[in-house]
Structures are given as C-alpha cells and as structure tokens.
Structures
1.
Amino acid sequence: MDIIPNLTRKEVLNLEPRGSNQSQNINNEVLTTKELADRLSVSERTIYNWRSFGRIPRIGFGNVVRFILGDVIKALKDEEWRDGIGNSISYEVLNTKQLAKRLSVSERTIYNWRLSRLIPEFGDGGVVRFIYSDVLNALRKGGAA
C-alpha cells in the first residue's frame, strides 16, 4: 500500500497535543484560514474546500471566519468519508496519475479540470496532490464527471 494516501491524515491525527493544560489551550485556539492551513500543512484552498463541503466546523462574525483548532481536528479524525457509491474511503491524497486511474479518465482530463478549477488541489514545491473525497464532491457539484 502506498504511504502517500495516508500521510496527511496521519499528520492531522498527530496534531492533537498531549498533556491536559497544553491540550486544552491549543484545542481552544481560534485560528484564521491561513493560520489553520499552516498548522495542518495544507493550502488555504484546501481549508476553503473543506469549509465549503462542510467537512470542518467554523465560526463566523459577519464576514470574518475563524476555526477552533480542537473542533477541526476532531472533525477530521471522526468523519468517515464515503465515495458516491457508499464505499468507505480514507483521507486519500493522490497524485495526478493515481487520480486519473481512480476516475478512469486521462491525465490530460485531470489537467484540464485543474485549469478550469473544477477540482480542488493542493501542492508543495510544484508537486500537485488531490484529496480524493474532495474531488468527488467537486465533480458532483460542478458536473464535470
């Protein structure tokens, strides 16, 4: 089994601090989108996508959106994600080739969807990755599939 699909999920699972006082302080920490993205080592776009799909809880004050770190970590840990036909899926992070194979489309199609911003992506140092469940949700909403 490839280690890449579980890497980000493991990082999220390890975010919860140990020690009661420290844990309580960090878990109640209120963060901006940028701060949360930095803490979870994902892009701000990923945070926006998670928020849009209702994957993570948020609090709002007018146009201001904030996140409570402990609530976000709990939501990411507890949620059982499923694909469109009811199969349980983990927090899978795929590269372009893996995503194309999983969706039975060409890599060029994935590239075109990226350019059209039909599917969410995140990257680090020029390497583009996709969260499988987020892509499925985006395709359902955008009608690309």
2.
Amino acid sequence: METLMSFFSVSMIPSVLQPNVSITASVGGLVILECHTTADLVVAWFWLKQIPGQKLNPIVSTYYQEIKLQEEFLNESRIQFKVDDKKSALIFTKINSRDARDHCGVLLYEKLYFGGGTYLAVNDAKPVKIIQHPVLDSHHVGDSVNLHCSIFGASCSGGQSVYWLRRESHSGIIYTDGDRKDQCETISVTVSTVQSCVHKVPKSLASDETYFCSVVTCGKLIVGNGTKLIADGKACFIAHIPIYSWFCSFSSLMSNNDSFSEVLGDLLCSRHETLTQT
C-alpha cells in the first residue's frame, strides 16, 4: 500500500498548473508556454518534450538560480527560458514544424510533480490533402483489389507515416488494415510534393467495407474520402464517395499498429471539402 501511495505522489496534481492545454501556432510565429506552482519553495524547474509514441526528453532545467539547457538545444537561439519564484516560461521564436509536439512543465519540490502538459500544434503553410481515386474495374468477391490514393503537400521535417484504415459496415469500427507494407512513390512538382500510394486488399470480403487512406504528419492525422467496397451477391464494386478530407488532432500516437488503432476513437475530427463533385 505504501508503494502504491508513493507512486501516486509523483502523479499529476493541482499544485503544478499549465494554463494552456493546447496552443496552435503558425510556422515562423512566437509561442510562450507557461507553468505555475503554488509551492512556497521551488528547488528545481524542469521542462520536457514528448514526441507522440516516445519517452519524455528534457529541454531545460534549473537548480535554484542555475539554468541548464540540454545539449540538443544549446545552439537553438530561438528557445528562451524565464523563471521566477512561482512561474516559469518556455519561449519559442520562429516556430517550425519540428516543434509540433507535447511539452510538459515539471517541478521538483522534495518530490517530483508534473503539470498537465501543453500540446503545441504547428500549422504548416502548405496543408496536406488526400484524394482517393475510384476503381473502375469490376471485381468478384474473393478477388484482390488495388486501392489508390494521392497525398498532396509537403510533409514536416519529422517525416510522415501512411496508414490504410478499414471500417466494416456492420461494426462501424475503424482500425488499421495490414502491416503498412504499401507501395508509395513520391513525385516532386513545381509547387508541391505528391505521394502516390497503392494498397492491395488481398481478399475482398462478402460484407461492405470502406478503406481510408490516411497520413500522420505535423502532429495531425489526415484521412482521405474513402473507397467503399460493396458486396452484391457474387459481385464486388466500388461505390462513389464525395471527395472529402478529415483533419484530426490527437494528444498521443504510438508507433505500433495496435496502439494506433486504440487512439482512433479519441480523435477530434472535422470534415473539409477538398473537391466539389458536380
């Protein structure tokens, strides 16, 4: 019981407060992340970053009045740190896409206490759009089907991951399909970058299914309009779906498929029309 209480004593508590749960900034802008405490005596302050799916890494720390910036950020003149008795601030100037991550203020006062964290979302100047292309050939139930999508827009410097999501009509559940070993080809054009991807459905089922091409980039999950496989007796054909993209924000995204599937239900999504059909 004592061990259990000790564990909870280092958990998130009200005495360390980060006023902003999330902040959205544009590339090149300025952001101030704040952390407050009600403690009377602060021995040390810590700020850490957390890339979704990875462990916490320190950015800066203090021991009384001594400030120590981690080696990774020593040459980052755009990062400043301010501190007084009951408040600290991490200041980013000239925000870039690499800063789209979760930052957490941490206080050490006899024991370790964590604030709730502030999720910093960076808007890229060039939004990413996904268009899924119709499949015109007819197929039979049990045939393999190749699905195509095009991803428009430059990715963040941290790279991007392409996923195919599958939703069955009878369950309404969306989950990752396969092991992501899909064929994607990057095509550079004058104004943007286009990534063309193909996903092979090895064996179409007898029930209706919708497949969504999606990409994780710049701290967001962007989902295509979807391609629906409809089973009609012995035939299987592709339904027409209006071209939409779904833009989703998330607070955590793990690197493996199982964990990725689990967080899909917690995504906050909004529909954005990318192409009007006439």
